[in-house]
TrEMBL record:
Keywords: Glycosyltransferase, NAD, NADP, Nucleotidyltransferase, Transferase. This is NAD(P)(+)--arginine ADP-ribosyltransferase. It catalyses: L-arginyl-[protein] + NAD(+) = N(omega)-(ADP-D-ribosyl)-L-arginyl-[protein] + nicotinamide + H(+). It is an enzyme of class 2 (transferase). Belongs to the Arg-specific ADP-ribosyltransferase family. InterPro entries: ART. It comes from Rotaria sordida. Its EC number is 2.4.2.31. The lineage of its organism: Eukaryota, Metazoa, Spiralia, Gnathifera, Rotifera. One of its GO terms (molecular function) is NAD+-protein-arginine ADP-ribosyltransferase activity.
Amino acid sequence: MNRFAEFELENKDLQPVAGYWAYELVSLEEALKGFLSQINELKRSIKEAKKYCKHPSPHNLTRDEAAAVLLYTMEAGDHSFYRILNQVLRKEDRKEAIPWFSYLKLFDTALKKLPK
């Protein structure tokens, strides 16, 4: 399935995912350690993202922040990281996103540093 055709054509009025901004910034490995046994090849993908991310970053992203963004954009078929995360973020039960808060904090911190 193409990533651009992946969205569901239904009107969901989801509450915002809130609370992750209060989490401390941690390394990418630390943010995702709870998912290593659940997501195929996640450890390898994290390693690749850290190896190939642009660092030093022209926008002052840390290596972990840059790798968090790169990891989200990496395509790996039906088991792509972004697909798994997006499925969680589309759920009506917002509590299901709580295990992802450390990653969301890292990802959001990186995105805020990028030019608009």
